[in-house]
Specification:
12 helices, 5-stranded mixed beta sheet, globular, homodimer, alpha/beta, 22% strand
C-alpha cells in the first residue's frame, strides 16, 4: 500500500530550520529531511528552497509526485489561511508573502498554509500528547511563547485567525518589559529570551555561573535549549533558579488557561520541553495544580510535554490538509 | 398572537433576588416580577418560592400554563446541565440540589437549568450588546468576577461545564489574597469585594472618604453599586482612585482574553456596569486597547457594557431553552 497509496508532505518552516516530512494516508512517516532556512535572497529564493526540499525528500523515499495529494506548510506569524498568505513573519523578513500560490506553481500539487503553532498543536492532538481530548491548550516555549487551542474537537482560530496568543497574556502587571512593548506578559517571564536575560543579569550582578562559558565553548551566541540542558546537568545554581522561576510562571499560565477554558489536557511543547521532557514539565504541573480553581481538576486535567518532538508541526500540517481535503 | 402563541418563563436565581420573566416566542417581554431570594428553610422551600413566583407572574400577565413551553432557570455555581442539578451554590447554601426535577414536578412543564453567568452572556449575545458577533467574552463584575464565553457562535462550556472562570485567572503573581485562597486573581483586584477592601484600608490608614458614611446613611453593610455610584457622584477621591485601579485591572483582563481568544466583542456586565454604563467601561476599554497585541484589534474588537440590564439572565435562559427544544 505504501508503495502505491496517496502521500502527503508536511513542511515546517521555522526561523532557523526547514523540515519536510513525507507520510502515507495513515500518518506513517516515510521520510524526513531538514536543512537550514536561509532567508538571504528574499521570499522567492526561500520558496524555491522549500520546493527543492519537498522534491528531494520525495525522491529519497521513492514517492512519485503523482501520489502526493497535498503539501501542507506550517509557517510563522499570522496567516491569511483562505488565500495562503503569510501576513508577517519578522524572523523570515516576510510581509504578505503569497506562499500558497507560489509553491503551488512550483510543485503543481494542492498547497495549504497554516500557522506553525497551530499545526504543532493539531499534530499533538491528533497523534501525540493530546490524543482523545476534545479540548486542548498548547503552550509552546522557545524564543517567545506561542499558544494554540483545540476547542470542541477542532482548531479554534478566533474571529480573524489570531487566537492563541497566550504568551501575550499578562501575568505580572507592571512586570518585566516584553518584546511586544508591554510589561509582564508570560513571554517576558518564561520564554528562553526572558531566561537568558535573567541569567545575564545575575552574572552581571556578580553571581557565579558557567552558562556564558558553556555558550562560548559550544559556539552559541544565544542560550539555546542545549545550553540550558548542559548548565542544568552541571547543576549551575543561577540556571536552576532562573529555570525554576520560569516554570513557576508557566504553571500559573497553564492554570489560567485551565480555569478559563476547562480543557482535558495542556500540552507543553517547544525546544526546552522537547529536550528536558518531564523534568521541565513536572514543576510546571505542580504549580498549575496549586492554582486550579477546581481541586478536582487535578485528577482530570493532564499537563504533558509534547510527544512528537520536531515532527509535530509537519505532521499537524498533514492532519489539517487531510481535514480540508475531506 | 401574543394572546394565544407559546410563551417561555426565564428565571434568574440570584443570591439576593429572584426574578421571573415571561416572554413570547419573539422574546417580547410580557411581564417581569422580582422578589427577595430567602434561603432560610432550605432548598425545598426556595424551590417552592420559585414555582410560586413563576405562577403568579404568569397570572399577572394573563398567560395560561398550557401556553408555557418551558421554564428555564439561571442558577449560581457549577451546574450538571444534563440532569439539571445545582452542584454547589454557597450563597444559597445549596449542594447537589436537583432543581430541574423538583421544579418540573411542581410546575408540570419542561424545565432547564444553566449557570447564571452563562445565561447572562447568552442573553447579551442573542439580544443585547453582543448581537451579531460569533465570538464574545463576557466579564461580569459583582461580589466576585464571573465569566462566560461564546465561541464559534455558541456557548462554550469546556470539558466538564466549568469554562469561563476568568475571575480566577492570575493578573498579579503574589498579589492580594483572593476568596478562592490563591493570590492575585482578577477577582481579588477588581471585584466589588476587592474595591471595598481597598476603600476600607485607605480609610483605616487615615485617608479622608465619605464612603462609610454613605453606607451608614443608606443602611448598607456592603459597598454596593449604588454606594459606589453615590461616592463617585460626590467626587470622593478614595473611591475614584480605587475605581480607577479596578478598571485598569479589568482592562488588562479584557486584553488577556482578546489576545488569547480573538473575539469580536467583550461584554462587561454585572451591577456596577449596569449602573455606571459608559463611565465604567470607557477606562476599561482604554487600558485594554493599550494591551492588545494586535493594534488593528482596536478597530475590530468592541468592548461594551451589557444592554439588557437585570433581564439579561432571564432572557438568556429563555434563549437557551428555545435552542434546546429545537
Amino acid at each position: 500500500m505504501t508503495k502505491t497509496g496517496v502521500c502527503y508532505v508536511g513542511v515546517d518552516l521555522g526561523g532557523t530550520s526547514l523540515r519536510a516530512l513525507v507520510a502515507d494516508d495513515e500518518y506513517k512517516i516515510l521520510g524526513v529531511k531538514k536543512v537550514r532556512t536561509l532567508t538571504t535572497g528574499g521570499p522567492a529564493r526561500l520558496i524555491h528552497r522549500i520546493a527543492a526540499l519537498v522534491e528531494s525528500t520525495l525522491e529519497e523515499v521513492g514517492v512519485r509526485r503523482s501520489r502526493v495529494r497535498a503539501v501542507s506548510v506550517g509557517a510563522p506569524g499570522p496567516i491569511d489561511r483562505s488565500r495562503g498568505i503569510v501576513e508577517e513573519a519578522p524572523n523570515l523578513g516576510w510581509r504578505r508573502v503569497p506562499l500558497r500560490s507560489e509553491l503551488r506553481q512550483l510543485l503543481r500539487v494542492p498547497v495549504f498554509v497554516e500557522n506553525d503553532v497551530n499545526v504543532g498543536l493539531v499534530g499533538e492532538h491528533a497523534l501525540g500528547a493530546g490524543r482523545g481530548a476534545k479540548n486542548v491548550v498548547g503552550i509552546f516555549v522557545g524564543t517567545g511563547i506561542g499558544g494554540a487551542l483545540i476547542l470542541d474537537g477542532k482548531l479554534y482560530e478566533g474571529a480573524r485567525g489570531g487566537a492563541g496568543e497566550i504568551g501575550h497574556t499578562v501575568l505580572v502587571v507592571d512586570g518585566p518589559l516584553c518584546g511586544c512593548g508591554r510589561r509582564g506578559c508570560a513571554e517576558a517571564l518564561a520564554s528562553r529570551t526572558a531566561m537568558e536575560r535573567d541569567v545575564r543579569a545575575a552574572i552581571k550582578s556578580g553571581r557565579n555561573s558557567n552558562v556564558l562559558k558553556i555558550m562560548k565553548k559550544k559556539h552559541k551566541e544565544r542560550m539555546t535549549s542545549s545550553i540550558i540542558a548542559a548548565a542544568l546537568k552541571k547543576n549551575d545554581q543561577v540556571m536552576r533558579e532562573v529555570m525554576s522561576r520560569a516554570q513557576f510562571h508557566l504553571g500559573i499560565l497553564a492554570s489560567n488557561a485551565v480555569n478559563l477554558l476547562d480543557p482535558e489536557c495542556v500540552v507543553i511543547g517547544g525546544g526546552i520541553a522537547e529536550r528536558l521532557k518531564d523534568s521541565y514539565v513536572d514543576p510546571i504541573r505542580e504549580t498549575a495544580y496549586e492554582y486550579f480553581l477546581r481541586p478536582a481538576d487535578r485528577d482530570r486535567v493532564r499537563i504533558l510535554s509534547g510527544r512528537l518532538g520536531d515532527n509535530a508541526g509537519a505532521l499537524g500540517a498533514i492532519v489539517l490538509a487531510k481535514q480540508r481535503l475531506m
